[in-house]
Amino acid sequence: MKHLFSTILMLSLLFSTACSGGSDQLEDGNESDDDTVMTQEEAQEELDEITETVGLSKEVSILNESDIDKFIETIVPMTKELEALSLEIEESSPNDQNWEAMLAQPKVVAILDKYGWDNGFFAKSMVISMGYAYAKGMEEYDKMEDDAASQQAKTMMKQMMGPMMEQMNDADLALVASNTAKLDDVINEMNEMDR
């Protein structure tokens, strides 16, 4: 299990990028010898496991404007610490890993606390990152001409991200969509960290 938080963020951003045909990190289902490349199926399985672990619920709104502001303020330094810790955990117990165990580690909890978050952070960050990826993807597709290829790309994105979006509260997704401009810089910075 690589990079505790950035896996969540990058899987969501890869879905968005893959829908526009620009991802070299998310394959179309073919096997790859490169362990940094995920198939769409592998990415969906990983997201499903994470979603279940963090306890997302369509019925319950979990975000407010201050969560988005705190995400923008804390995500880069916190992610650096979480990634370093996840590598440390992997090295010390590589065969005993699952998302629930990783998120319950006392050192993970201490990092979250340091930045003013609790264990609800992972669900909130997932809604922010997935909601952002979906909103940005839909913005791009809305700018395209209304031709068959554009409609096919938009349909593919909805199929890929639809199951995840169905697990998230509509009010939370609308809040994220209304804040994409505020999130652009930090999401771009996160993308650069993983290159």
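Above is the first protein from milestone M3; the second protein from the same milestone is given next.
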Amino acid sequence: MEELLKLIVMGVSIGVSVFATVSLAFAIIARLHEQKQLYKSIQLLQLKSFKLHYIVFMVITFALVLYLIGQTLDRASPEYRFFAKNLGFSRGEFIIVSIFVEVFLLVASTYFSVLAFAKSAVVDKGLYLGSGFVEWNEIYDYVVNEKSSRVIFTLSRESFSTMRGTTPPYKVLPEDMSKLVFILNKNKNRFN
């Protein structure tokens, strides 16, 4: 029974880690491709957003990687003793599972760093937001606050009645505010 439980824990841990790592790797590649497309595009306006939370997540996941590496190398670590005592893990099995989890956390930290340093801009075909490209026909509504030079977009049919599909506030240079309003009004007929 203990051997079966050990195999299930190893299989699930490795399987989930591999699936999540591959998914995040594809997401990283997609974001980097979109950033490459942004740099090739003619940028009409630069958008800025508050991304401190991505940097915090990046630091936390990287700290977890360093912590797990330390725990993997330490034979007397509480994690290893737990897995050895309760599930009968050998040292090699614990190291294998730990490596898969560490690789996943390292890729997650990389993903957060890509999101933290991704640029956002308005281009002629739509918006490059840190989380991806949005075409004009995917935008349902927007709110412009000219006093604070901020704009919020919604990508949901329910518009602003729900937070689903609502972007964070993007800051625009005050001198570009009239240009942004002009571009949004010009493309308003493309909105759904």
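Note on the second protein: The chain has a mean pLDDT of 87.
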